[in-house]
Amino acid sequence: MPSEPVEAILAYPPILTPEQEEQFRTLEQEGGPLSRHTTLHELEQTYTRTGYHVVTFDKGKGEDPREWSKFQKWYITIGTAFLCLAAALGSSLITGDMRGPATEFGAKQIIINLTVTCFVMGFGIGPLFFAPLSEVFGRRPMYIVSMFFFFIFTLPSALAKNAATLVVARQIAGIAASAPVCNVGGSIADVWSVEERGAPMAVFSATLFVGPCLGPMLGGWIGERAGWRWMYWVLFTFLGACCFVTLFIPETLAPILLKRKAERLRKETGDEKYRTLEELERKTFSETLKVALIRPFVMLLCEPIVLFMSFYLSFVYSLLYLMFFAFPIAFEEIRGFGMGITGITFVSIMLGIFIAMIGVPYQEKIYARATRNGTFPEARLYPMMVGSVFPVSLFIFAFTGAYPWVHWIAPCIAGCLFGFGMISSTSPPTHTSSTPTPISLQQPWLPKLCGVLLALVGCAIGPMPFIFYKYGGAIRARSKRASPNQRIKDEDVVGEKKMSV
To answer: Can you give the pTM of this predicted structure?
Structure first.
């Protein structure tokens, strides 16, 4: 099901109409039959007149995942969120002790830092393949296969004899870990209706936003007390438990369940006319894969809004992983904190994340007020405008973190502001793969210089949400793919009423 940002999923009234919601759920494709038929019912009637028996869920028989019990729904929600937490922890747990591998292997620190960069790059590469594969084989097989490979390729890291093994294994593990990230939101949408989806999506969002910050908190203590290899062994053990969980997560994708029902009916009756709408409307796998691989690049090259907003969100999300290297410099190297206590300082970022998420209901009120005359995409930019103040946190961190005589609370305040700005700007940043490779900043003046440089870049791109809010409608009007909805001002509505009178 096409993904929506967290605030869109929590929106009330829902952004998607019930008909659009059912279309996406039943056909698992964008731009479905509504371009040729008014409703799915009309599409079913069309195929029925041609002799097909269109297979659907029978109401009240528990075939539809949305009719399953609350216990089953919450088991799927918590189980899949558990997998998402594993991916988030896997990306950052090892940052608790990055100097250990460099010292043991005699490698440059920048090479060891690639273990984080390559892993997060996998979040951008994996969905290109896992998304179309999940449409063909279902969500459950993707969870089982991906988590198995994530589990297996964490083992070489724990047993590594050189830095090359670490980097290569982490790259493969990152690609495998991307499957839960790009499928869990769909699994939750499969079993929960729009009206019930608020709390389950909050659980899912918490694993995505808080998970990366939990990594250095846990990894710091493990690295300090047991050594860097035990960070991988702990992750390996946790992933083993996740692999076990995947074996008991049922399939939830409606087209796959309907396809199985159709296959059963064809076998029982011998009538090959039993088909699902998804089977009748589906493109070939090669076409689906081609679209999944080519469309992102087409959108980037042909849609200026996609290009610039992708750069904006990539930059903001990459700053989170830069913090995993900046905090140890500010607290461990400059202030003499231990690795464990340094990990605890990431609570400041988590606090900012929680504050931003508390504001989601208020954001919905603003959105409702802005779209009282009709919806338009730019109405979703208000929280991004607030979050564009994140360069302030970078300036504070640059001018406080680099000096040992400045109280430790100052860079923590910067971390809290950054967490707030990040979540306000990105909802959620799960498919970003542009994590830069941090370098070792040994000279005392380099942390401040790099912090100021990043803050200046943030200042340069900060006005982007405001620019797109003002000119986004005109830019979208030139696009063949963007929403045609335009902002309707109150005075225009009043004028139309007067003319009608």
So the answer is: 0.83
